[in-house]
Amino acid sequence: xxxxxxxxxxxxxxxxxxxxxxxxxxLRSRLIRSALAVVAGMMVVLAFYEPVLDFLxxxxxxxCQRRPDLVSNCDFFTLGPLEGFNARLRISLYGGLIxxxxxxxxxxxxFVVPALHAxxxxxxxPFVLSSVVLFVVGGFFAYFTLDxxxxxxxxxxxxxxxxxxxxxxxxxxxGLMMAAFGIGFEFPVLLVFLQLVGVLRPRQLVDGxxxxxxxxxxxAAVITPSGDPITLALLSVPLAVFYFVAIL
Length: 248
What we know:
Elements: E1 4-5, E2 11-12, H1 20-47, H2 49-66, H3 83-112, H4 118-155, H5 167-184, H6 187-196, H7 202-207, H8 209-223, H9 229-247
Antiparallel strand pairs: 1-2
Helix pairs in contact: 1-3, 2-4, 3-4, 3-5, 4-5, 4-9, 6-9, 8-9
């Protein structure tokens, strides 16, 4: 434990001189607050479960109206008495995580701020705000393009196959797609951060753009659960645009 001695013989701990036990206690406190924020968000989503479910199924309803030849039955079904409860729990968990995201990022910020220099602290809040905004934008981008991906995936079943979705699997699919796009849209924040800390330089980004584009396509293929080319293109193109914007 580091100590700082003053002229009158008194000692005081500096901010960065916490013991391991104190660091763990601080981490525990931040994790508890983050978990409570997630639980509070889940309660809010549960209170508005029906409107949230209508919101999530809207892309599927749009596809049903636009392509009745492809999807004739827009009703969900369950395979057991617990599936409806599981779907409700998943929706509340996904929604709770999204609603709690600002609080979670703030708790992370408060935990790491003692170790940051003044210059790093200056960039922290813009990074947190931009991360939240880009995650939300990515999620909504996935939501508004979801019916195109669903159309392509369903078309592979053939005209003789009747479509019927389990509610829990549909909710998981939508949640994973929105999360994948939200995480993917954090790409420019990562690039700017790496440039600020000196890991990457603009010249390196310019010289390595071909490799970067290939890696972007591979990354998009990995994080998108559907794997269809439409969704892959919808995620890869914005990420490539973000890459070239970060060079400017």
